[in-house]
Amino acid sequence: MPTPHRTLGDRTVGAVGLGAMPLSIEGHPDEARAIATVHAALDAGVTLLDTADSYHPPGGETGANERLVARALAAYGGDRDAVLVATKGGRGRSADGGWTVDGRPEHLRRAAEGSARRLGADAIGLYQLHKPDPAVPYAESLGAVRELLDAGTVRLAGVSNVDREQILLAREILGDRLVSVQNRYSPAVRDSEPELRLCAELGLAFLPWSPLGGISRSSLDGSSVLAEADPRFGAFHRVARARGVSPQRVALAWLLARPGGHVLPIPGASRPETARDSARAAELTLTEGELAELDAVPEQ
Q1: Does 55 qualify as catalytic in the annotation?
Q2: What is the C-alpha to C-alpha distance for residues 42 and 136, in angstroms, rounded to an integer?
Q3: 168, 157, 205: which is closest to 183 by C-alpha?
Q4: For residues 118 and 72, is the Cβ–Cβ distance under 8 A?
Q5: Which residues of the chain, if any, have pLDDT below 50?
Q6: What angle do CA 192, 276, 238 make, to 5 degrees?
Q7: Is the full-model pTM beyond 0.90?
Q8: In what order do the strands lie in the sheet with 18-19?
Q9: Which of 55, 127, 138, 185 is catalytic?
């Protein structure tokens, strides 16, 4: 059976997290269903919730998703102390629905302090630098994260949308307080393989965002609804039919089985049943033959 937990620094969390982004961006569900989705994930054993200050519709309020996560946790009747909330800073939304980048140290300090207030936290459990800003030396942005760690505003740090050199620089500047890397990785998008391997070597958790790409549409496509089955990813559907489970669950189990045991997928969900299904991927053990079939890179 796959290991049902993953390690982030000194914290242990469930092997599958919840990406909260679809609960607040375009096409998001109403608040009642959004909170029910978070609660369903927590009840199913999810203890990592991933959010960001930029997860809101164009023209919406910065931190909308963080506030939603905070309200969902406040209303949860289970063990809230076991939950690690990870948020991100350094990106924003433009009026036309695009995504901006701001890695200036002064912006990151303000952003982290705002995130902590919205989450109602004395310190942010895991703060992730959302994306390198080409207009700002990456070392300066990382220096701001180090200052946030030193000040106690942030307990653990992560980086996102980075290459190998940027991971190594982050490790040099943040030391062992750097615990995670969040890059896009999925059945359809596998170009972060070098970064995934480096994380295993360094003992860092690898959090693939949009982990169901090729099986489901990404939330960055404007919706978390399922796309039509792509024949390039037929192996995931074949294994799912044989196992009597969803292809999404197979895709997450495949990610959990990547060498190193350090992959912690954070699939999005906008319905309680989807959140529950994703969490159960930690219970699915794939055979060597199934993994070999799923490992084959689909032809473009």
Answers
A1: yes
A2: 38
A3: 205
A4: no
A5: 1, 218-228
A6: 60
A7: yes
A8: 18-19, 48-50, 84-89, 124-129, 154-160, 178-182, 205-206
A9: 55
